[in-house]
Amino acid sequence: MPPTAKKVPSERVHHGDTVIDPYAWLTVKDDPDTIAYLEAENAYTQQMTGHLKSLQETIFQEIKGRTLETDLSVPTRKGDWWYYSRTEEGKQYGIQCRLAADGDTPPELRAGEPLPGEQIMLDGNELAGDSDFFSLGTSSVSPDGTLLAYSVNFTGDERFTLRIKNLVTGQTLADEIPGIFYGGAWSADGTTFFYTTVDEAWRPYRVYRHTVGTPADQDVLVHEEEDERFWIGVGLTRSERYLILSAGSKITSEIRILEADDPTGEFRVVRPRETGVEYGIDHAGDHFLVLHNKNAENFELATAPIDDPGTWTPLITHREDTRLLDVDAFSGHTVVHFRRDGLTGIRILPAGGEPYEIPMPEPIYDVAPSGNPEFVTGRLRLGYTSMVTPPSVYDYDLRTRELILLKRKPVLGGYDPADYEQFREWATAPDGTRVPISIAVRKGTERPAPTVLYGYGSYEISVDPSFSVARLSLLDRGFVFAVAHIRGGGEMGRRWYEDGKFQKKKNTFTDFVACAEHLKATGWSSGVVARGGSAGGLLMGAVANLAPDAFAGVVAEVPFVDALNTILDPSLPLTVIEWDEWGDPLHDPDVYHYMKSYSPYENVGDRVYPPILAITSLNDTRVLYHEPAKWIARLREVAEGGPFLLKTEMGAGHGGRSGRYDSWREEAFVLSWILDTAKVTR
């Protein structure tokens, strides 16, 4: 029998409406009853999936068997060194290394071998020790290559401890700074490191300046962001000439800059924040490049004088069909990353030459600049993948305009891309909008076939066509894998995002249902298992309420399913900043009633639901564990169908288990559940 969650009366009144939450007691993390309930749920899930142990092990071995466990990345040139990471068979975490540079050609890669003469900077396995969880928050080498700032976390709560290592002597310095957030930046001379800390709501809000060799309690507060809607971060321009202190909400930016050779100086504002205006900046010699959306929904690229960075002159004007994503400045050219027709692309602006775009070899793909730390270079490093092409690293020769393949991620076991196919379909949403779907399938698969449909649809995040080793365990068993590029994401430009947020959020859910129905109506799918995580978990809960008959099963990972209660509580991590994404139900009755009409926890009904698997982590600071715990409890109380399963990782955060073997086992668990739910048990 499944665990039964006790019901404790809890009522709140908002905008004249009474909110009844009988499972609010689960929000008390340190209550022994909460832990006991989560452990009971884990035991029940283990019992209900016990018959899948053999299949889980088979899939784990398939993932492991396709992965070159001892491998290394393509080295990236920075100053006098080639930097790269590598993995070793049997070890959970990566190893960061460097090799003295001799010329501009990357050293020859030898599968399974360290590079001769390498220096190990950080070994994640040594740092992790016997800890069940480990993650790096930052790893940043000083401009002169002598010091490494790195931060570690052992719980999953995304609060890290910063240390500094002397790469010349190999010694770790006495400097130790607890409680910092991701990222950080060095001054030009390597004497100073800037970092951020978070408030009680887990919002990065302060930037500090640390002088190497001094105690942490002497660090200087450089900036504090008082507006609870804004996060702050600190970094460097690619030229390393300027420090960048960025403040941003979901819809507004403000940037301060400081000469990197003057770390004790005062940051100056590039352009004061203006609600709805987002911008980013990079240094390009005698001017700045500014990417912004001032009167340009899909963004435009502008130049700005060094002494007047808030005055912007258009360089690439706004286009309705092209969303500008990012810009990188180099000494002799500019690189623009863009999105058009649901696909990414690269545009080159040579100094004094005609702009052009780099052609890609497949009709469906994802490409982005990757690993280009050198400001003066004749090559551009690119990362490329598709649904059938493993992650690939190219150098693009700017002189010959040739794409040079440096490495394609090995897939062992005889993988041949020619054995698989990828397609682009278009579903029609209830309002007539055409919604793209990316599909991967093994050639010869009989259709209709069981299908996994993945979706996200929030924050303008795009789920671009990409490769997955683990996915092959589904495709080789006759599955179709599809991604629904629904509104709320960014696949079709900024308007696509705007049409899936605030009072248009339900478009995200109806788009996803339309994609599921399209796959069945056009003969692709015999049954659809839906999968999504985080905000995509909200999607899972919403479509399960909206159209439970459309799905054979639902996998919701770290799911944001108690959206209304969370966004009503400004004391919770991240809530206030989220008001720019979902609206403010605390102060706006229209937003309150709209969110209440779709929030998954609020709308569980007395109807037949498909089997549902919810996965969460006790130490998640982004989507708290109690959201799926309450949701599963309410499903058991109110709904029919199922079964409804909850699995809580008791020692991890938002990203789940940290080691690669652990994460493979977690994926094998999910895939075995999907296969069993679709009645494919081989």
Automatic annotation (TrEMBL):
Pfam families: Peptidase_S9 (PF00326), Peptidase_S9_N (PF02897)
Peptidase S9A N-terminal domain residues: 2-407
Top-level taxon in the UniProt lineage: Bacteria
Residues annotated as domain Peptidase S9 prolyl oligopeptidase catalytic: 465-679
The keyword Ribonucleoprotein appears for this protein: no
InterPro entries registered for this protein in UniProt: AB_hydrolase_fold, Pept_S9A_N, Peptidase_S9_cat, Peptidase_S9A, Serine_Peptidase_S9A
UniProtKB keywords: Hydrolase, Protease, Serine protease
Keyword Protease set for record: yes
Recorded family membership: Belongs to the peptidase S9A family.
Protein name as catalogued: S9 family peptidase
